[in-house]
Amino acid sequence: MDEHLDDILATVRPLDPIELQLLDAQGCVLVDDITVPVSLPPFDNSSMDGYAVRVADVAGASEEYPAALEVVGDVAAGAAEPLHVGPGQAARIMTGAPLPPGAETVVPVEWTDGGLGAGPVTGMRARSLAPEAASGQVQVYRAAEARAHVRARGSDVKEGDRALAAGTVLGPPQISLLAAIGRGTVRVRPRPRVVVLSTGSELVQPGGELAPGQIYDSNSFALTAAARDAGAIAYRVGAVTDDAETLRTTIEDQLVRADLLVTTGGVSVGAYDVVKEALSYVGDEDEPGSGMEFRKLAMQPGKPQGFGSIGPDHTPLLALPGNPVSSYVSFELFVRPAIRTLMGLKDVHRPRARARLTADEPLTSPKGRRQFLRGRYADGAVTPVGGAGSHLVAALAQADALIVVPEDVTAVEPGSEVEVVLLG
Amino acid sequence: MDEHLDDILATVRPLDPIELQLLDAQGCVLVDDITVPVSLPPFDNSSMDGYAVRVADVAGASEEYPAALEVVGDVAAGAAEPLHVGPGQAARIMTGAPLPPGAETVVPVEWTDGGLGAGPVTGMRARSLAPEAASGQVQVYRAAEARAHVRARGSDVKEGDRALAAGTVLGPPQISLLAAIGRGTVRVRPRPRVVVLSTGSELVQPGGELAPGQIYDSNSFALTAAARDAGAIAYRVGAVTDDAETLRTTIEDQLVRADLLVTTGGVSVGAYDVVKEALSYVGDEDEPGSGMEFRKLAMQPGKPQGFGSIGPDHTPLLALPGNPVSSYVSFELFVRPAIRTLMGLKDVHRPRARARLTADEPLTSPKGRRQFLRGRYADGAVTPVGGAGSHLVAALAQADALIVVPEDVTAVEPGSEVEVVLLG
C-alpha cells in the first residue's frame, strides 16, 4: 500500500501555475512570494471621525476651558485635495481620510461640541442634512498628543515587504491582504479538473427503476463530491457499461477536460473487469511513463487498484475497485493526496490521531492486510460503526474516521490504542 | 455584543427547503428523515469473482481431490436472467452479480483452476479474449460453507430503515448512501445567496491606479471569500461611493438575488457615513420587523454595527464597520453564524478553545470592551500577531485565531490562559 501511494505521489506533479482573478484563486496555492508594491496605509490618515488640528491649539483644553477653533471644511475619505489647517483652525475629518497638511493630530468628535455649541456630542450629523457643520466654529474639550488617532503611512505594511510567501493557501484573510495591496490577479496553481466515472452494466442512475440484478450507481456521486471536497473541480461522467471499447472511447473523450481521471470497478480478477481489459495495454512502449499497472495491495478494503497515465499528455488515472466502501476508502488514501499534490499543497494527507478503541468485542483483521474500518471518533476514543464488508454504505455514512489495523495485527482488544484517519 | 448576536440569530430563520439534485445538495442540511425504499443489496450477490455452486458438490474438495463441475455459463453483474445451477454444476459469477437459483455458495476463482485444467489460477481471463471459459469444466480445490462469499439481501440496509436523519449535513459518504438507495434528488435547505458590498468614495478596485487619498477595496473581496467559506453562494458587488441615493438604489437592485446583504463601512459617527444615512429610515413603521438599527457595541474591533431587514421580503442586512480588520472580525462573529443559521446548521459558531498566551509582554485591552486580537494557535498555545489596530491587514493574514480579552480585563500576562476563537 505504501509503495502504491509512493508511486502515485512520485508521478503526479503540481499543475502549471495560472494567473487568476483574486476570487477565483480562493483555496489555491500561491506560486510566488508576493511583495508589497505600495505601503499601507498609503498616506497618514485618521482612525476616527473628528477634527484635524494643531497640537498647540488644543493644549490644555477642557470642558470648562474649551479651545475654540475655526472649521475650515471637511476632509472625507477619498478626498483628493486636502485642506490646509493653519493655527487656530480645524478640519472636520472622517475615518480613513488623509491627515491634511498643517494638522498634527486628530481629536475625536466625541471630544468636541461638533460645532453645535451645546456641549459634547456623540457623533456628526450627516453632511447632506447639516452642511453648515463643515464651517463655523468648533469647541474642543480635550487636548491631544501629536499624531493621536493618526495611522501612519506604512504602519500596516511597507513597500518592499514580503506580504505572503510562495506556498501560502489563499483564504479570506490572504485575499483581503492581496486586494489591499492592489493585486487584482495572482499566480496560483489552479484547482485540478477531475473526471469521475463508474463502470458496471448493473448500474442504474438514482431516480431510475431497478430491473432484477441491477443496483444504483453511487460511486460516481460519492467520488465527485469527495473530489470537490478535496479542492478539485469535479466532473461526474456517470456509469459506463462493461464494454472495453465504450470505456476506451469515453475516457478518450474526457481527456480534454481532465487533469486526473478516476474510475471505479472493473479492476479485479473477473472475466468482465472492463477497466483492466480496456486499459492494460494503452501504454506506448516507446513512451516512458505511459500505461497502466494493476496491482493487488495488502489492504482491506481496496485490494485491487490500478494506476498509470493515459493519452498524449500522460494524464494520470487512478482505477479504484467498485465496491462502494472500497472505492471511497481508496479515494481517501490515494486520490485525495493526488488531487492535493496537483494543487501544490504541502499537506496532502488527512490528519491522523491515536485513539482508544471503544467496542464490545475485539476487532478482527486478516493477517497480512492493513485494514481500514469505519469508526466514529470523539475525545480521543473511536467506536467502530458497521462491519468490515465493503458493501456497507449505510455505516460509512455514519463514520467520520477510519480505524487502521496494521498488517501484522489480527485482533485489537477493546481499550487498546489504535491509529485513526480523521475524515474531517 | 452578546445581545447583538442574539438579536441577529433570533431574526434570521433557516431558508425554506428546496428539492435539489444530489450533487447540488453537497454541504446542505437534510430537511426530512430519509427512509430506505429498497433493501441494500436488493438481492443476494457474490462478493467475489468465482463460481456459484452447491455446497454438497464441493464438500471435501482439495487440491489433491478436486471437485469437477460442469460450467453452465456466466453470471455477470447486471445479468437479468440468472442461470440455474443444478447438482454437479457451477456458474461462473462476478462480484456483485446475483446468486443464481440453485447455487448455495460461491468459491473464489483463486480456489479453482479457472477451467484451464492446470492448477490454481490467480484470476479469470477476460470474457472477450477467452469466451470458452464460460463453459466446459472447472476443478474446485476447496470446500465452501453455505452462503460463503455471498452478501445477503438487506445486509447493508433494509427497506423501511432510516437511512439518514433530518439535520444531517450531506458530505460525500451521505451522498453515496442517498445514491445507493436510489435518491436522485433530495430536499435540503439551499445555500444562502449573500450579496456583499463595500462603501467608500476612497475605494479603488485592486489592479487600478491609486490617486492621492485613495486605497484599494479589500473588504468586498475578503467577505465574499469568507461568505463562500461559510457555505454561501456569494456575490461581490464591489465598492459603492458615499452617496445615500446611489447606495439605496444599489441595495434595492440586489434584493432580487439576496437572502442576506452585507455592507462594510459608513456605520460610524462621521458626516459621510452613508450606510447609516441611507438605511436609518428604510423601515416601514406599519411593518413589524422592518428597518435597521445602528449600535455601538462594547467590543474592539467592530464597535459600530448595523442590523435589520429591508425590502418587501424583510431581507436581513448586516452593516459592518469599514476598517478591514473590523469588518473581518465582525463577519466571523456575526455574519458567519447568520449564514449558517440560514443553512439550517445546528453548529453555527466557530469552535473555541482555551490556550496559554505566549507573548513577550502583557496584552492590554480597554476596560469595558471585549477585545478580539489576532493570533496564531498551535498545541494549546496562542501567540499574538500584529497589534490591536483595526487597519492591520498584514497581521490578519498571518492569524488563524482570535484571542478574546473579556470586557473587565485590561491586561493579560504572558503564560495566562485565554479563550481563542479558532478560524480553522
Automatic annotation (TrEMBL), chains A, B:
Keyword Signal (UniProt)? no
Provide the family line.
Belongs to the MoeA family.
Q: What is this protein called?
A: Molybdopterin molybdenumtransferase
Describe the reaction catalysed, as an equation: adenylyl-molybdopterin + molybdate = Mo-molybdopterin + AMP + H(+)
**Could you tell me which pathway this protein works in?**
Cofactor biosynthesis; molybdopterin biosynthesis
Q: What does this protein do?
A: Catalyzes the insertion of molybdate into adenylated molybdopterin with the concomitant release of AMP.
Top EC class for this record: transferase
Output the Pfam families linked to this UniProt entry: MoCF_biosynth, MoeA_C, MoeA_N
Q: EC number(s) per UniProt? A: 2.10.1.1
Query: Which keywords, in A-to-Z order, does the entry hold?
Result: Magnesium, Metal-binding, Molybdenum, Molybdenum cofactor biosynthesis, Transferase
The segment(s) forming the MoaB/Mog domain are 195-341
**Cofactors (names):** Mg(2+)
